[in-house]
Amino acid sequence: MPMKHSTYSVIIVGSGIAGLYAAIKLAQTAKVPDGILLLTKSTLSECNSRYAQGGIVGVLDENKQDSISLHVADTIKAGCGLSDFNVVKFISENSQHAIKDLMACGVDFDKNEQNQLNFTLEGAHSVRRILHVGGDATGYGIEKALVEKIKNDKAIASNITIYEQTIAVELLIDANKNCRGLISYNAATKEYEALYAPVTVLATGGTGQVYKYTTNPSVTTGDGLALAIKAHAEIKDMEFIQFHPTALSLENSDSRFLISESVRGEGAKLINQNGEYFMKNHPQKDLAPRDVVAREIYAQLSKGNKVFLDASFIGVEKFKKRFPNIYKTCLENNIDITKDFIPVSPAAHYCMGGIKTEVNGQSSVNNLYAIGEAACTSLHGANRLASNSLLECVVCAHEFVSTISKQNLLSSKIIDETVLSTIKRYAETENYYSVDINVTELKAQVKNIMWNNVGIIRTESSLLTALSEINKIEEIFANKDKCASLDEYELRNMILVAKCIINAALSRKDSIGAHYRADSTPVSTVNEHAGFAEKSEDKADDSKIIA
Ligand code: FAD
Ligand code: SIN
Fold first, then answer.
1. Domain extent at residue 314
2. How many other CB atoms are found less than 10 A from the CB of residue 478?
């Protein structure tokens, strides 16, 4: 089978905020004689980033109540002490530059009547320090500005080749463990291509789709992690999956639209169907760290209670202005927040773990970098502080560009026997996975297994059950080299990532942060608060409870 071969100075996989920002900065500052390839498996603007609501952390001089030390302390506390202090400090110190540079790229953060930036609050932040766009459309606002820059700024656009509907399926790793590029598969033409570059960066996002209930869009199948696992890169902290406490929970629907934590930041409160304000006794109440709130909601749901957000404390006009997208989506689903409570439940939201990297994205494999949610810089520890991830995308992409700009990025198409044999597998083998497997059904099975056994509460027994069931599904793919579709590649990646999460969760026998083992004694300080809700006596207004 003939196969196309191309060379670039840098290959960027993924067009979320990390990938787009890296592409722009590279095109602006680095010498890229062979150009930049930006490869994405869906359309340019489809990704997790697009749906980010609450905002992005900015520790800015003009915000007098805030400081680097406060932000560092909040991040480390939310992460239960497992964050790397130097990484947290570095990212916090660079937040001012990141925000100013996003503004220079055309991002229009919300301002008040005095034309000053508006800061909001989210869980576990001690001060208001989160900037937002379009009220609750921060990700959309940033992604839109970056896409426009890439498309309309001629100097930038002329350096970047964009491949859409094209999935990276395997990294080209030589015998000395150097990454030489990758193999891609175009879902529209069904063609494979060998792509060579001195630098490859995975900006492929998280893993949310591995779970039945998730706030993440369908593209978030952990592909970058799977590619890195196959390339024997070091992976870190995969037991720490963040479940967002408040996703819109509608009967007869598995989809989970996010109700931003900033809705609680602006005053909304969590209640159960009996009107009990069950976060009342926690020192941080509704704005306790996410893992704590998610477990408390889970405990309510396990007792058969329904859980709601009471947004009446915000006021109707303010809600409509501040959260236009959430207001509209609720209304489309027959929830009028002026009269009704919003039914919520937790959903898989963010992967704290990932490909182990430095802040500049360098992985344990030479020439292979990872940035954004796909990477684990150890910023987040056991539980991410809200709105730190978009900041990490931008700061790490910037560092990545600073690092590789100093290198010679002239592509030299070095192909040894090991790389050649990988290419041949795609060029010559007809050894496809079964074309008649029901990918949708198998994906649903993986998602159910993970939700039921590797979710908010885990035990050794549930984890072993999950491992054995996932292993059975994996057997379908035994001894085969290629998939028959993009969907099949995603399924294969989801299986690999699911196993990685399960094995990490099995290895960590204690509970800390987002990893809660019901068969162990909690060790984290925040977990001390588990069970406090039993003491809650407050009642909210029963008249608004939806049956
Ligand atoms: P993504 O934005 O997920 O982009 C990944 C890209 O890689 C996509 O373009 C995808 O198509 C592509 N891709 C994946 N695999 C392949 C492959 N094999 N080949 C080719 N392309 C591939 N964080 C905050 O800080 N603040 C918030 O307010 C916030 N709100 C959120 C709300 C929601 C609903 C969600 C889901 C997340 C939110 N987060 C928030 C988290 C944050 O959005 C993500 O962590 C961040 O956007 C990740 O950016 P990224 O560039 O790393 O990846
Ligand atoms: C939210 O708006 O609640 C999401 C914020 C985040 O995940 O950082």
1. 243-347
2. 7
Provide the β-strand partners of residue 200.
Answer: 11, 368
Q: What is the pLDDT of residue 400?
A: 98
Please check whether residue 58 is in contact with residue 98, taking contact to mean a CB–CB distance below 8 angstroms: yes
**Mind giving me the DSSP string for 472-487?**
HHHGGGTT--B-SSHH
User: Does the pLDDT at position 523 exceed 70?
Assistant: no
Provide the residue type at 90 as one letter: F
- Residues 6 or more apart whose CB falls under 8 angstroms from that of 36 comprise 8, 9, 10, 11, 12, 23, 26, 27, 159, 160, 161
User: What CATH number has the domain bearing residue 264?
Assistant: 3.90.700.10
Choose which residue among 24, 49, 266, 488 to substitute to test ligand 1 binding: the one with the highest number of ligand atoms within 8 A of its C-beta: 49
Ligand 2, CB cutoff 6 Å, lining residues: 53-54, 258, 260-262, 350, 386-387, 389
pTM given for the model: 0.95
Distance CA 440, CA 443 (A): 5
Ligand 2: distance of its center to the CA of 274 in Å?
27
How far does the centroid of ligand 2 lie from the alpha carbon of residue 424, in Å?
Answer: 44
Is position 295 within any domain? yes
Neighbours of 73 (CB within 10 A): 14
330 inside domain? yes
Residue 12 scores a pLDDT above 50: yes
Helix axes 85-93, 68-78, angle to 10 degrees: 140
Burial class (CB in 10 A: 0-12, 13-18, 19+), 117: middle
What is the rounded distance in angstroms from the CA atom of residue 110 to the CA atom of residue 446? 40
311 within some domain: yes
Residue-wise pLDDT tens digits, 41-80: 999 999 999 999 999 999 999 999 999 999 999 999 999 9
Tokens of 477: 């793919």
Helix or strand (DSSP H, E) at 261: helix 261-265
Q: At what angle do helices 17-29 and 388-405 cross, to 10 degrees?
A: 30
